[in-house]
Design goal:
two-stranded parallel ribbon, 8 helices, alpha/beta, binds thymidine-5'-diphosphate, Rossmann fold
């Protein structure tokens, strides 16, 4: 896999309820203050087609969706996002922040759903056109805490994925930690049980090290 030499792709990963979205927003604010050109995206979604695919994936009425279709739909949304948005943004030298990317598929569909990791590696490479994040933050919280945080959300109407049992999240978390151990050069495990400002400061320090200085 090749990392982009122009723009920078930073991804946020972790189990539901780990605070990825909040941390992405806090990083976006800092980039704004630093006057850096950036783009904030989420997966699945980020394009019209991807948002349509997202609604198929997350609506509870699609409970009969089989694991193989689920995998292909996540990859389809990703391919669209890479081709339509991420590639052009990186070519323009932007910092691209993405709430979930290919590691989610390895953790959720691979470790969580027991689909072939070899097949997922091939599909991830195909869908991303070999675009690899320059830096990935894995916001790690024990599954019990992530479950608790999800349930505390004001609208406790869980989507299709959030309705999974605790053992599913335990497998997903283990899958993520295995990925981080395999790719320490790219993936930083962040203890997301700490308060959000401490986590945001830690992330900003890391990101500053990879921001190009010649802007
Ligand atoms: P979302 O509401 O965006 O959740 P979160 O805020 O936790 O990111 O829903 C995305 C869901 O899709 C989430 O449960 C994780 C799951 N997912 C996969 O299973 N595989 C994937 O490849 C991706 C991108 C997401």
């Amino acid at each position: 896999m090749t990392c982009s030499r122009q723009g920078i792709l930073i991804t946020f990963e972790g189990c539901d309820g780990g605070g990825k979205t909040t941390q992405l927003q806090l990083l976006a604010e800092r980039l704004k203050q630093a006057k850096r050109a950036f783009l904030a995206l989420r997966e699945p979604g980020g394009t019209d087609i991807g948002e349509t695919v997202r609604s198929i994936l997350l609506q509870k009425k699609h409970s009969s969706l089989c694991a193989e279709s689920e995998l292909l739909l996540f990859e389809a949304a990703r391919a669209q996002l890479v081709h339509e948005v991420i590639h052009p943004a990186l070519n323009e030298g932007k910092v691209v922040l993405c709430d979930r990317f290919m590691d989610s598929t390895t953790a959720y569909q691979g470790a969580g759903r027991h689909l072939s990791l070899e097949a997922i590696d091939v599909m991830n490479a195909f869908a991303t056109d070999d675009v690899c994040p320059n830096m990935t933050f894995l916001l790690d919280v024990p599954p019990e805490i992530s479950r608790q945080r999800i349930l505390q959300r004001m609208f406790s109407d869980l989507d299709r994925m959030e309705g999974e049992e605790l053992s599913f999240y335990e497998r997903v978390r283990k899958g993520y930690l295995r990925l981080a151990a395999t790719h320490p050069e790219r993936i930083t495990v962040v203890d997301a049980c700490r308060d959000k400002q401490t986590v945001a400061d830690f992330i900003w320090e890391k990101v500053q090290c990879i921001l190009p200085t010649d802007e």
